[in-house]
Design goal:
Shape: elongated
CATH topology of the largest domain: Alpha-Beta Plaits
CATH superfamily of the largest domain: Protein of unknown function (DUF541), domain 2
Number of domains: 2
Structural class: alpha+beta
Helix content: 25-40%
Oligomer: single chain
CATH architecture of the largest domain: 2-Layer Sandwich
Strand order of the largest sheet: 3-4-2-5
Order of helices and strands: HHEEHEEHEHEE
Strand content: 25-35%
CATH class of the largest domain: Alpha Beta
Number of strands: 7
Number of helices: 5
Radius of gyration: 40 Å
Distance between the termini: 75 Å
């Protein structure tokens, strides 16, 4: 009788096992539920569009790059002649009302000139003279003075005008306006594609500025001005400031 009693499972132990088994199963279900929900979540689609915005603006400033080029046999004599000539050019520029802060020396250089060897020998060519180039860059903030100033620069001794660069003195506001237009253009295209595809734009996932466009320099050759006795006709025209953006949206 005693042996039979020992073999029978204890009621309390069996109840405890059932509780433990139920608790463990619940824990497994609770842990597995989030993982299942995460795997089943749909992946949101995206749409990417580029946009360009431009603003036309009239330049209000010009930069003239001009030089005095002098040649001769003696470096000292050429330097003295060149210095005298560039001083006359600078004084003429100042006499036109250009402030000192808008006049800057640039591109100074002394270069030897070598003889041409035509006898077929391998000897080193001799120096037969020197060339000195001394330049000045001028900011012209009143474009009504530009044509007359170009003529005066040449008449006072400058024999090389490398170019004229038209600029907008404060382009930041215009560039910001072009950026806004670029974003609006990208959104407009995205909305058209989304509507055609039967979806709706969500939030912006990424936006990148891929480039900007600023006024380009207008180059003018000096030869056409060497014999000018009247103000050189110059038209600033209009320049374009632009911006490009790429935007990626999520789709609802």
């Amino acid at each position: 009788m005693m042996s039979l009693i020992r073999l029978l499972p204890s009621p309390s132990n069996s109840f405890a096992r059932k509780i433990a088994l139920a608790a463990g199963l619940s824990a497994v279900l609770v842990v597995a539920a989030p993982a299942y929900a995460q795997e089943a979540a749909p992946v949101a689609g995206t749409i990417t569009m580029e946009g360009t915005g431009t603003v036309a603006v009239a330049p209000d400033m010009a930069v003239i790059s001009t030089n005095v080029v002098t040649t001769g046999k003696s470096a000292a004599e050429v330097l003295a002649e060149n210095s005298d000539s560039i001083a006359k050019v600078i004084n003429a520029i100042k006499a036109e009302g250009i402030e000192v802060k808008d006049i800057q020396t640039s591109g100074f250089g002394i270069h030897p000139r070598y003889e041409r060897i035509n006898d077929g020998s391998n000897r080193q060519p001799n120096i037969i003279g020197y060339e000195i180039r001394n330049g000045v860059e001028v900011n012209v903030r009143d474009l009504t003075k530009l044509g007359n100033l170009l003529t005066i620069v040449v008449e006072s001794g400058a024999n090389s005008v490398d170019g004229i660069r038209f600029e907008v003195s404060d382009p930041q506001d215009k560039l910001d306006e072009a950026r806004k237009k670029a974003v609006a253009a990208a959104r407009h295209k995205a909305e058209i594609f989304a509507e055609a595809a039967g979806v709706e734009l969500g939030s912006i996932a990424a936006i990148t500025e891929t480039g900007t466009q600023m006024p380009r320099p207008l180059m003018m050759r000096a030869e056409g001005m060497m014999m000018a006795s009247a103000p050189v006709p110059v038209e600033a025209g209009q320049e374009t400031i632009g911006a490009n953006v790429t935007i990626r949206w999520t789709l609802k």
